[in-house]
Structures are given as structure tokens and as C-alpha cells.
């Protein structure tokens, strides 16, 4: 291949990208080990065997079409955990090209298998983002080879679609992004606020408008500079990293921000990352041919996301194929103005007249006196879905009754996803779901110990016993 094919000055960038992607894979597999079986296992809230009986391989490519059991799932998830850990510490980078490709291909195939049967629990845009970035990592090559420029370009192209798509959906969506008032609400109403979100929310309206303007610039203008000659691409990448770091401080968005930061490093050459580069050699000819074929294929697949971005009916976070390659991205095209939370309660009093105690979730707001915690880049799937239920109860139609049954049975597998079970010894006689309006405490209320102030709105699910719930 000609000199254009190689990018030796991006050796450090490739090292950062591959290590950070391995870290995100590790988070994804660790999340699956802890959360998947109570959510979607054999006895989960939306069981995979039931899903597989209704959906064929072509609609959801997955190893689990061959066989599913919770034990086999554990083998898959732990294999991914071990391999991503090996990649994170650099062991995979010492392998020959074919072995590097094999390990990263296995990571991609295993995580794809989980996502494609994960149903509503894996319906987030950052799952597709990790899979698309992880697929490209297969062809980056180990540390002792020269980075292939086409794959580095594809990583920058992926970052461009993430940022520019998100910017467009905001400008086309909620008018609060255009009149610069979006952040008057967003920090308070976002899915899962973090420990600093209250401080961000109470910034002055003028600073909120500055934040929105900066967001529009970083998503609608800066991404074009990713393809500019250096140092232009370096500057663009640094600005994106700063913006994503700001978002990480202001809320919990799983690994969306971390993967975006990871992709930004693909645009940084050796002039910015001043690590001493070891001698490298060109990869074998067969690898070079594969890289060119993959590049051509990804560019062809990019037709759909480009059409989506420039079309008048842009949608957020859509995969146009079941392999989650060349997806469309975007977030918060609309901003909720008022925060509602679903609070689950139980009582041992069979009359339901007294003794109601609240179940606590690890991440989502509950107890008004509990400070929001930082969980990102880890992903709390049940907490996130509870936010959607507060917006529209229909989001919980397929799984909320199962969660209520688990509470009434004191199902230890499901309840381990909660922070606090007020009935550790004997299950409650009745449970219910109530809807509250939440707002951040003002300065005086904070001095009195409150982080949130909440007001009851309605009863989402009236008091119900195990006998009254429809069997699973």
C-alpha cells in the first residue's frame, strides 16, 4: 500500500482508543454479569427464552439462538469480562495481527449477542455506539504494527456522526434549544442526576445560555474540524473532550461520554500526545486488503445515517442493520420541564391503611435527603427505565408487573438491583407505585438537609397483593 494507507503519527492515539474501548467493554460485560439475569434471564422481568421463541436469528443475531440458559449466559459474560480486561492491561496488544483481530472480534460478537436479546434493557444509543466502535477496533492492529489510516478516519467519521447528529436533533426538536433555555430545566429533569447536578441547575440563567451556545458550537461546528489538517483536528478533539467532560460532571449518562471521548483521541496525532513511539512494522497484505474492504463497506452503510441526518424527519439512536454498524445517534431532542419520579412502596398491613415503606434505588432519586451519586460510566439499567415510566407509564408495561411480583415474593435476584429492601425478612402483603413531582432544593432547604423537595401527584399502581397480580 502507498504511504497514504499508514498513519504512524497516530500510534499513541490508537493506544489510547484501544485501551479506553477495552475499559468500556469491561464496564458493559461487568454490568451484564450483575444485572442481566434478574432483568432478562430465565426468570427475569423480560425472559430471554420467551423473546427467542418469538424472534428469529435474522431479526436478532445472537449466540443465544443456539442455546440459552443463565449458566451459559454467565460463561459468555465472564468470557467478555476476562478478554476485555486482558485488552485493557495491554496483553492483547502483544499478539500477532490475526490473534488481535480474533480477540476483538470475539468481544464484539459476545456483546452483540447480549444486546440483541437484551430487549428494552439494551435499547440505549450507547450500546450501538460501543458495538460500532468495537467493530472498528478489530482492524486497528496491535501495538507493534503501524496504525492503518482508513480505520482512524472511520473512527473520526463515527465521532462526527455522534456529535453532529446530536446537534441537529436539538436544533430541529424542542424550541428550548433554539431560544437557549434548555438548561434551565435539563440538569434537574435529566434521567439520573449526579452529585453536582444541583449546582449546575442553580447556575444563573445567563450561564445556562452560555452552556447551550457552547453545546451548539461543539456539536454543529467543531466536528467538521476533525477532518482538518493538524493542528486543527487536535483542537477540535480537545474541545470535544472538554465538552464531554463537562457533561460527565453534570449528570450520569452511562458510558456515552466516555466512548465519545475515546473517539476524540482518534483525531489526535503525535504532536499532541507526546509519548515515545516504539518501532512499528506494516501489517500483512491480507490485513491491508481487509481494512480497505471494511472501509468501503462502512462508507456504503453510511448512506442511511447521512440520509437521516440531512432529511427533514431525523430520528435519534437508530440502527439500520442488526449488526449495529453505521448507526444514527442523537440525544435530548426534547427536554422535559418537570421532573416526575415513580416511588415503589410496600406494607405488611393487609388493609393497606398504614405501614407503607419505600424501596430505594441505587441511582435514581428517591429519599429527598439522599444526595445523588455518581455512577457513570457504569450503567444502572433499571434506574434508567424507571425514569421513562415516570414520563409515560406505557414504558413499564412489559416489566413493571414483574418487578412488583418480585417485591411481593422478596425475590433476592431482582431485589439485588435495588439499594434498599425495607422487608428483608418477610415479603410485604401489598405493594404500590406512586408518582411524585421532584425539584432540587433551594439554598435554605439544602441547609435543612434536603437535596430534593417532592410533592405527591397520583397513584400510578394502586395497592396490590400477589394474588391480584396476573401471573407471569
* CA-based shape: globular
How many helices? The count is 18
- Largest sheet: number of strands, sense, barrel closure: 4 strands, antiparallel
- Count of individual beta strands: 4
Mean pLDDT metric: 94
Strand content bin = 5-15%
| CA(first)-CA(last) distance | 59 Å
What class would the helix/strand composition place it in?
A: alpha+beta
Short description:
The chain has 472 residues and is an alpha+beta fold. The protein has helices at residues 11-40, 48-54, 70-88, 97-117, 125-137, 149-172, 175-178, 186-189, 197-201, 205-220, 232-250, 256-265, 285-301, 303-310, 381-391, 400-409, 412-415, 443-447, and strands at residues 339-347, 357-358, 430-440, 452-464.
Explain what this protein looks like in three dimensions.
The protein is α+β, with helices and mostly antiparallel strands and 472 residues long. It has a 4-stranded antiparallel sheet with strand order 2-1-3-4. It has 18 helices and 4 strands. Helix 1 crosses helix 5, helix 3 packs across helix 4 (97-117) and helix 11 (232-250) packs antiparallel against helix 12.
Question: What would the keywords be for this entry?
Answer:
single chain, 472 residues, alpha+beta, four-stranded antiparallel sheet, 18 helices, 4 strands, globular
